[in-house]
Design brief:
The protein is mainly alpha-helical and about 100 residues long. About 55% of the residues lie in helices and about 0% in strands. It contains one helix and no strands.
């Protein structure tokens, strides 16, 4: 009752023989021939090409501006920390003397 009923396929004939002994034939349906996908070709007109170049240039300029501003923010922060470190060091040296 609790044993699984697994079909046995002793020979690679395509026929599946269940445990009960009755022969069961499986008919394989041939797969349909693959159809090449028909994708529309991209046609660039002079107007769309100019728009594409303009958009790419704008994106490069915006990304460049953001990266340069981030670099400047890091540089200004580093400079400020260096000045603060010099001031703290001079204050501590004056207290020792």
């Amino acid at each position: 009752m609790f044993t699984p009923k697994i079909p046995v396929n002793d020979q690679p004939t395509g026929q599946t023989i269940p445990l009960s002994g009755a022969a069961v034939e499986h008919h394989q349906v041939p797969a349909p021939a693959p159809v090449a996908p028909t994708r529309p070709t991209v046609q660039l007109t002079p107007g769309s090409l100019a728009l594409l170049v303009g958009g790419g240039t704008a994106a490069v300029l915006v990304i460049g501006t953001v990266l340069v501003s981030m670099l400047l923010a890091v540089a200004i922060t580093a400079g400020s920390l260096a000045i603060v470190a010099l001031v703290v060091r001079s204050v501590l040296n004056q207290e020792r003397k």
